[in-house]
């Protein structure tokens, strides 16, 4: 009964994030673009809540989620206020409430990306080094897709209008230890929710990137 219940929760969670992401893509490109962009905090909050709901019983999950949130927030605060790690940039208003200039949801996003990418890497490889490298690569791929459209969506913008090499190097510095600790603590997520969530977020921003000229005209 408990196993069936966990499966049911996972199916509902997966269906929910598919609904929200597909609706978001259609809404931004063909509907009320500003309304759907302004709803980003709701979507990201829901994704984080559902990830915790599905995975919280997994050993080590709470530890890596908490660590990723704290480390991500501290790194971003240093970046926004002092130009350290990622370069000089500022956050817009689209991501909601801020702490020292950094939206609190950015910490949640660091947790989502760390857990989802590491969970995927765990299914692909058995050994630590390839798991860490693949997980890190997935996180970098996500950031690479997001950076060109982040200013258009009013997420954040770098001082010179384009993410410098320092940003990607900073991602390696921050994400590498997080990937390591995920596997060091032997977090073993059996659910497929994390795979769906990462794929959906990647596809969401990939489609928007392909439609970047349309997006600029809409926003």
Looking at this protein, list some descriptive labels.
219 residues, mainly alpha, two-stranded antiparallel ribbon, two-stranded antiparallel sheet
Question: Any overview of this molecule?
Answer:
The chain is mainly alpha-helical. It has one domain. It has 9 helices and 4 strands; from the N terminus they run ααααβββααβααα. The relative contact order is 0.17.
List the helices and strands and how they pair.
Blueprint: H1 2-30, H2 33-38, H3 40-55, H4 61-82, E1 89-91, E2 98-99, E3 102-103, H5 104-124, H6 128-146, E4 156-158, H7 165-184, H8 193-210, H9 212-218
Antiparallel strand pairs: 1-4, 2-3
Helix pairs in contact: 1-3, 1-8, 3-5, 4-5, 4-7, 5-6, 5-7, 5-8, 6-7, 6-8
Short synopsis of the structure:
This protein is mainly alpha-helical. The chain has nine helices and four strands, in the order ααααβββααβααα.
């Amino acid at each position: 009964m408990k196993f069936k219940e966990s499966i049911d929760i996972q199916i509902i969670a997966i269906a929910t994030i598919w609904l929200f992401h597909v609706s978001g893509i259609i809404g931004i490109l063909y509907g009320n673009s500003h309304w759907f962009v302004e709803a980003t905090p709701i979507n990201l909050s829901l994704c984080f809540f559902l990830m915790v709901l599905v995975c919280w019983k997994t050993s080590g999950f709470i530890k890596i989620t908490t660590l990723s949130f704290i480390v991500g927030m501290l790194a971003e605060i240093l970046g926004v206020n002092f130009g350290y790690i990622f370069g000089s940039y500022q956050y817009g208003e689209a991501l909601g409430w801020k702490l020292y200039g950094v939206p609190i949801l950015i910490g949640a996003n660091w947790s989502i990306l760390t857990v989802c990418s590491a969970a995927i890497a765990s299914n692909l490889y058995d050994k630590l080094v390839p798991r860490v490298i693949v997980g890190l690569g997935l996180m970098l791929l996500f950031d690479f897709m997001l950076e060109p459209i982040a200013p258009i969506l009013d997420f954040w913008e770098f001082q010179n209008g384009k993410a410098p090499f320092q940003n990607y190097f900073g991602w390696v510095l921050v994400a590498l230890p997080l990937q390591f600790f995920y596997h060091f603590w032997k977090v073993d997520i059996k659910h497929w929710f994390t795979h769906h969530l990462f794929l959906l977020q990647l596809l969401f921003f990939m489609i928007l990137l392909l439609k970047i000229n349309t997006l600029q005209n809409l926003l």
